[in-house]
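Batch job 17 of 40 flagged for manual review because the log was empty.
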Amino acid sequence: METEKQQQARICVCHISTVHTPTDVRIFYRECLSLVKTGYEVHLVIPCEQSCVKNGVYIHSIRRVKNRMFRMLFMPWAAIRKALQTNASLYHYHDPELHFMGFVLRRILGKKVVFDMRESTARQIIAKEWLPNWSRKIVSLLYRAIEKICLKGVVLIVANDKSVEEYELCYLVRNFPEIDEELMANAMSMAQRLQEPLLIYVGGVWESRGAFTYVDLAGAIRDRGHNIRMIIIGPYSREEFAQELQARINELQLQDIVTVTGYMDYPEAMKLVSRAAIGLAILKPTPNHSFCLAGKIIEYMMCGTPVLCSRFDHWRPYVEGERTCVMADPNDIDEIIEACDKMLSNPSELAAMGERGMQAVRTKYNWNTEFKVLLQCYDDTLKR
């Protein structure tokens, strides 16, 4: 008799994205690597310089296209060509712009297909900075119409609790971190962190995610006498924004305090988080942000890093409920500054918040439980 692992070794899964990087945290580090460890044959079709095998994942290179319209119109067909060459038992795609590709795979070619929806795209469109204001609601409504056509009967993996209420055939696989005991064991004590307090943000770097707020906060906290540093980690929404953000840093004379790194591999970013006094997640109140939990909050908690974040009702159970953070109005810079000042002035409470965060991740908010749901989703989809 074959073991369950031997049976799964015969199952080939192909993940597809035309948007994300080859080392995207959810796609590569959580889903793909966990599947490899469980015995699946895992392929990943994604923009990168060359095809390779990384940690047991077969990575198939497609072009990274800067022009958004060209990418949306043509890259799905380059992706489907590469994906079909894997002869996978199941195709798992990650980008809303691949819905028509998914439709072709499922309806025309008869393949087993899963769509991984980590955010509410229709709500996300309302805040897209590259779309003219007048067009955003129209595009959002158009996207919902496309969803109704392309996702009818499709199995969905959603990362947000509230999305389960809006879609059928849903499996909730939240974007919680995989427990990293070595990282947690080597995390700095709060006493060490507060010797030169580091404030850190990890995620997309653009205005709606609080980039200007973080810079203004650094200047205000410095002026209150705190000897802080700040690191902002992540890709820019657009190239011009990098210049705009650096101009704000220069204007406030924060070049020696604020570092903007651009994209950084997840393990390296988490090492920095494990040395930080405060993790920042002051996202603006867009429809998508207030609807979906920011996964970075749980990642900060895993590293024993207290969180300063936006006051959104949907976030409360994870942060105020666990007493791991302070929430503030994301549109009130004075309240944000006051909250940060109080946190840095209370070392014992910061230490307690960090400990509670680690414990919450160990016991509740981790990838181990979520991955079991992913496996169940695959099993049910392959049997349908």
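Reviewer: the log was empty due to a logging misconfiguration, but the result itself is present. The chain has a mean pLDDT of 93. Unflagging and moving on to job 18.
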